[in-house]
Design goal:
Layout: E1 3-5, H1 29-52, E2 54-60, H2 63-72, H3 74-77, H4 86-105, E3 113-120, E4 124-132, E5 138-147, H5 161-167, H6 178-193, E6 201-210, E7 215-223, E8 230-236, H7 244-249, H8 260-271, E9 276-283, E10 293-301, E11 305-314, E12 318-330, E13 335-344, E14 347-355, E15 364-376, E16 379-393, E17 397-412, E18 418-434, E19 443-453, E20 463-475, E21 480-492, E22 521-523, E23 526-528, E24 532-543, E25 548-560, E26 569-580, E27 583-592, E28 597-604
Parallel strand pairs: 2-4, 5-7, 8-10
Antiparallel strand pairs: 1-6, 3-4, 6-7, 9-10, 11-12, 12-13, 13-14, 14-15, 15-16, 16-17, 17-18, 18-19, 19-20, 20-21, 21-24, 22-23, 24-25, 25-26, 26-27, 27-28
Length: about 600
Amino acid sequence: MPKEWPETINGFTTSGRLQNHNGARSGLSHFAALFQTLIFLLLTGSIAHAAQKQYAVEFDAPPAIVQLLQRHLEIAQSLDNPRLNDAEWQRLIRATPREIRALVATEGYFSASVESSTDNQTDRSSVKFSVNPGEQATISEIELNFSGEILQQPTGDQPGIDQLKAEWGLIENKPFTQEAWGQEKRKLLSELVVYRYPNARIAQSRAEVDSKTNSVRLMVHVDSGNQRRFGDLEVSGLQRYPESIVRNLNRIKPGDDYSQSSLLKLQSDLQSTGYFSGVEVIANVDADNTTPIPVEVRISENKSSKVGIGVGASTNTGARTQLTYDNLNLLDKGWRLNTSLRLEQRAQSLNANVALPTTEEGYRDSFSNHTAREDIENQILTTSNFGVQRSWGTYRFEQSIGANYLIEHLKVKDVESTRKDAATLSYGMTLRRTDNELMPSRGYLFNVNFTGAPVDSLSDGTFLRSYAKTQLYYPLTRSTQLMTRLEVGAVTGANSAPATYLFRAGGDQSVRGYAYQSLGVAEGDAIVGGRYLLTGSVEVVQWLSSQWGIALFTDFGDAANETSEIKPVYGYGLGARWKSPVGPIGADIAYGEDTGQYRLHFNLGVNF
């Protein structure tokens, strides 16, 4: 007859006790003292002897079974206990066969036999357990039953019964293990709990073992409970900032199906605004299951203003000092003002950006002013930019449009300075399809941007700048990762285009092994921008641990005024990688084939 196999395998824990029996006391004090001294010597000698004794255990079983036993058996864990003694050792030997049979049963071996042999010596005791696990049981039948409002769910709506049954991972006539059995039940329940049915539960489950046929019959009964929907939004903790900041980012509407991913998305969007030091989004699914679930947002606010100062260095532009001032509540409207003064050896800049709160329609508007001077490769470029931008969309698919007015002064060594103005319109689009935002290991990123000066009267001529970049991530093995990058650009009407919109290559994020923006069009002793750009990279990272890895890479690229003049140069190198809390950090040594020089490069995060 079939018998029911328990859902979990309980370990067995016992403890030995040392009991001291005192002999009758003599009425003579000197005999009592002598007796106590003798007992003390015997005990201390016994303890010293026990401390020197060694214990060992050996398993004769298939390798997978040996690993299981070494990880979980009490006798194996007790070998490192300095207080282990002969009495406890004998107790463990007696209890171990029962534990072995219980453990191998979790792997589907229900008819295991265990034999033991011991070797007891004065200074060493060992035991060997020979385990014949027998034949692994197979799954003979799987029965999935459902109750609750999921039975009234329209066909095609997810998660549906047909979908849940199709995604069930255990298959008839395949080996049974307790781990896989538990994992599939958790996955089945999770599909319901995270969407529409947060009160779903496993009402009943059985794994019935038939010892005659060495098979297991599985049965799971899932009660979905009521289908739940969201109610109104409730916000608490706001003092400085308007409540519209939270409500405009909320995409959860009353009557929407309950969804854990919607709650997590709202929390992530609020945390990324910069207004809040802490955000907690709660939906109390244990409340009355016949009414909509209110969405409660609890806020801890950041201070509205902050001043910062910092120093650093870049292999592109040298040593750096930076002063910043941020105001998160400009004009008491929740506008975010970010300003910075950055002084570097080869570049200086003064920036101010005002970002408005996200609108109810999901638009993110901003306007900015950027003034900069850079002296790179004998080209001195001074610019002032005034711009406005509107962005919308999600992290996976983001778009933007903008308008900008540029005033540029260009000075090339031994050439008279020139000025160009340009009023431009732009459109940008970014696709992100990666498994992780900070540490992608699989997927791709794609960005395209078009900037043009369409009106001749507002600029020193018309032009169109087109630019595209893509990065690919692919895991070759569990610890080996391939990354590739391709970058292309073109400018039409380049005689009218300011140098700001032309292309140069070389440096940390371009072609390693070459100086920053050292690849372009030669003009005397200077390198200036070209109309066309082509760069790329192939990199393989071997992770040596969960956080550290080494990288081997090849970069190539060039910029020129004609496509026929693009002659990519190559850089080769070796680097170290660290998975930091803010993204991957890299330090590279690269050799420039065209220059015959080695250069040091640093990289932080995913630049996209």
